[in-house]
Amino acid sequence: MGRTYDIGLKEALSLTLDAIGTLTPVPVPVHEGCGLVASENLTAMVDCPSATSSLRDGYAVISADIEKASRENGVLLTVSGTLAAGDPTPKTVRQGETIQVMTGAVIPKGADAVVSVEFTERQGDRVFCHRDAPPGCNLLFQGSDVTADGLIVKRGQLLTPALTGLLAAGGLDRVAAFPLPRVAVVATGDEVIAPGHPIKPGQLYASNIVTLYSWLRHFGMPGETAVVRDDPHELEKTFQYLLKNNDALLTSGGAWKSERDLTTKILDEMGWEMLFHRVRIGPGKAVALGILDGKPIFCLPGGPPSNEMAFLQIALPGLLQMAGKPTAPFPFKKVRLAEEGFSHRPGPRP
After folding, report:
1. Which CATH superfamily groups domain 4-23+180-322?
2. In whole angstroms, how far apart are CA 76 and each of 56, 70, 96, 126, 312?
3. Measuring CA to CA, how many Å separate 271 from each of 22, 164, 187, 276?
4. Is 327 helix (H, G, I), strand (E, B) or coil?
5. Which of 36, 45, 79, 231 registers the highest number of CB atoms within 10 A of its CB?
6. CA dist 87 → 38, 104, 125 (Å)
7. pLDDT for the residue numbered 4
8. What's the predicted TM-score (pTM) here?
């Protein structure tokens, strides 16, 4: 693929997304899957609930036995046992009988409803039911959350807290997902100083790497940062190290075309495949993208507004695609100028 210079944003995005693929899926523990994108359809291994259970403390009944029950005229049933959540259910409810159940208890055979305890009056081994309970009343049916072999998550779907909970309920302890890319951020320039160190006149703190790293953290991407002076050997050594230990590289500064802008020159010597350099956006024009060792390198301009805009509009969509996520995290709006005569030239407004 040849180099392209001074292109529009739409073409730059197209080249970016065509060149960058998703990372190889990995199995992750289901409790660590939130925020990742499923790389395959995920189906339940078991029904959840695994058996029909009670939604209330009360009594498991045959609904026909108490269909005429009312506050004034209670129906008397014999209590033949008690069940709590997790208890085995060898007993059967027969006509004229009931079994006391706690919330979560498996419904015994024969019963088709539960009457809530607040509508009953216990007297020894008997209980008066003062309200009817139609079939299915207060029951959580087997498989009502998920069913065995039922689809829970589609390929390409973002795993949310609710979905990871359903996956766990369906018996999955690991899921296949696209990992988030690990991204290195490096600021270049003799005038750039890492935050926290003394600064001299004419120098500036590497605020860009903090902004970029914060954006990466905002989208859940891990990474690391570095500050390197304008020394060809140090730049090449740092780029090699960061590419070895990360999935993508962002550089800040040195992306223009002066003699002191070394970033793209060093990458040329390292053999990267530059896809484009300079995009017709403002701020953010001096941005480049290339591939080295199968990994994308975004060279961003050094000015803070240009740096952030180039990252958000070009680099971020590519990084999100690596994770299998939507590549347009922000809405776009087209607007029309309210008046003519707009100029970007500096100076006081008329």
Report:
1. MoaB/Mog-like domain (3.40.980.10)
2. 20, 11, 8, 7, 71
3. 23, 43, 21, 15
4. coil
5. 36
6. 36, 10, 20
7. 82
8. 0.84
